[in-house]
Specification:
Strand content: under 5%
Radius of gyration: 19 Å
Number of helices: 5
Structural class: mainly alpha
Pfam family, one: Ferritin_2
InterPro entries: Rds1
Order of helices and strands: HHHHH
Keywords: Signal
Protein name: Ferritin
Number of domains: 2
Largest sheet: none
Shape: extended
Length: 138
């Protein structure tokens, strides 16, 4: 549970810095409480604050479904491009020469295929509302 909370906190922090106009900095309604862990560091405490602020602000957003799906599609475009370009630049021999087992590249191929499927799914759901992919320089 703590790992999930930490991942969620990292996501909320990313959102706070990546889209500051969407994440309102507000005091959590229960700002005196802390996570149940007895070993809370300053970083964890800060992340905990942002998670609470993120939850408080998300309840006020009310974004249209189309806009949320367009955002998701843009993220999938980035992920799909990242994996496909990486795989096109490094073949099996490159992975082996770098000390990786062949299963590592195979897993990247699988992830790349999943990302391409996510793109196709979101494009089909959005139809004419689907944004065009960006030209990434990775």
């Amino acid at each position: 549970m703590f790992t999930f909370s930490l991942l969620l906190a990292a996501f909320a922090t990313q959102c706070a810095f990546a889209a500051p106009n969407l994440v309102k900095r507000c005091t959590p309604s229960n700002s005196t409480s802390t996570p149940s862990s007895t070993n809370v560091t300053a970083v964890t405490g800060t992340l905990y604050y942002y998670v609470n602020a993120f939850y408080a602000s998300c309840s006020q957003l009310q974004l249209p479904d189309t806009q949320v799906l367009q955002f998701a599609l843009n993220l999938e475009y980035l992920e799909s491009t990242f994996y496909s370009r990486g795989l096109s630049q490094f073949n099996e021999t490159d992975f082996e020469n770098a000390g990786f087992d062949s299963s590592v590249r195979e897993r990247f191929v699988q992830i790349s295929e999943h990302e391409a499927t996510h793109v196709k799914l979101l494009q089909s759901v959005l139809g004419s509302d689907a944004p065009e992919p960006c030209n990434y320089t990775l």
